[in-house]
Amino acid sequence: MIKILHLSDIHMGSGFSHGRINPATGLSTRLEDFVNTLAKCIDRAINEPVDLVLFGGDAFPDATPPPFVQEAFASQFRRLVDADIPTVLLVGNHDQHSQGQGGASLCIYRTLGVPGFLVGDRIETHHIQTRNGLVQVITLPWLTRSALLTRPETEGLALAEVNELLTQRLDPVLEGEIRQLDPEVPTVLLAHLMADRANLGAERFLAVGKGFTIPLSMLTRPCFDYVALGHVHKHQNLNKSNNPPIIYPGSIERVDFSEEKEEKGYVMVELERGQANWEFCSLPVRPFRTIEVDVSEADDPQKAILKAIAKKEIQDAVVRLIYRLRSEQLDLIDNAALHQALNDAHNYTIRPELVSQLARPRLPELGVGNTMDPMEALKAYLGNREDLKDISAEIMEAANRLLAGDDPVWLELSDESASEAAEPQQTPSKQDSQLRLL
Ligand SMILES: [Mn+2]
């Protein structure tokens, strides 16, 4: 029996906007989070100890991570070298570079000849001798159209047709690897791909329009004892019959808010020829919390927002507050108090959204679908203005004459009343006495 730790989608170096700068190190606290979480995976591999570590791809957000991010990643994986645990690093779409072949950020491990480390940047079968016996690992990195197709072949084809052609090309290549497998030796397919039945997580947004989907039937083969996938950030098993298990472990940390509700972790596998027992092991990662509240109907919007904040556990969490209000409520919001209320969060953003006047009119009579002439509209408006009740008849009359175009109409306020009108406590009756219709 061979013990394997399968993890994927580390994306180290992403999501710095969700953290703060640690003044002691000058580094983003989110880099520290990702490093600490990766360290927990490596700890488990060493303490167990496992016989093999499989990484399913997407080490960094792109193929050219800054040196301090590269180093943070390497310093964790080198602990596996020290512990003499063989490791396969598969190349994901985020690891591929448009220049040269394969994944520049991971191929350095092969170039340097790091003992026990294999880089999966092509379709290939690796025969790996572990402490508990031989295992065969077929690596299938993220495929771009240039990997299996030439430009003239794909010219003028729609994306779905290219996808179909790519699948046709991949099939015999994979078959070629399968034919050369030793049927007595436990076998893993390690692949970075989008399977056609995967429940999309964040990758849908990260790689939109760039990818191909692989039919699940290509993976549910009895020659594979375990299919170790990478790419989709939400953990799942794609094969209900579990024969073989087809597993996305998901990302190890929350890359963005689309992963707010997902459990994060890695997978432990006990592999034999013909059987694989696996277990998802969750990681204690930093919580993300969305606080979304509509206060457009609230008498005291500030109080309603503070109440919504108080309801959520925000201690050390990455928080986003989204509140909806009407434009005339803006003055009722005390921003300093909101910042104070969110102070316990690790990091937070505040996003006020104005409720559209068109979508939700102040006066139902003036709503979408109601057509009325200007006089009716004015009447509806005045009907909702208690403070103008006393002079509404005169306003209507003035408006009538204005619309009729008979003679010029002026509403004139005396200098004295103009300054008084600016004060909100001004009573309508007082205004009335100073209003003259000419
Ligand atoms: Mn990916």
Description:
The protein is α/β, with parallel strands linked by helices. Helix content is 30%, strand content 22%. The protein has helices at residues 29-47, 67-82, 104-111, 145-148, 151-154, 159-179, 203-206, 301-311, 335-341, 374-383, 392-404, 415-421, 428-434, and strands at 2-7, 52-55, 87-90, 117-120, 124-130, 133-140, 187-192, 194-195, 213-214, 226-230, 236-237, 246-248, 265-272, 275-282, 288-294, 318-325, 347-354, 411-412, 436-437. The strands form five sheets. Strands 4-3-2-1-13-14 form a six-stranded mixed sheet. Strands 5-6-7-10-12-11 form a six-stranded mixed sheet, with no helix packed on it. Strand 3, helix 3 and strand 4 form a beta-alpha-beta unit. Helix 1 (29-47) packs parallel to helix 2 and helix 10 runs antiparallel to helix 11 (392-404). The N and C termini lie far apart (100 Å). Mean pLDDT is 85; it is low at 204-209 and 407-438. Bound molecules: manganese (II) ion. Manganese (II) ion binds at residues 57-58, 92-94, 192, 203, 231.
Tally of individual domains? 3
Note the overall shape.
elongated
- Which secondary-structure class do the elements indicate? alpha/beta
Strand order, largest beta sheet: 4-3-2-1-13-14
The quaternary state of the protein chains shown equals single chain
Q: Which superfamily, in CATH terms, is the homologous superfamily of the largest domain?
A: Metallo-dependent phosphatases
Mean pLDDT: 85
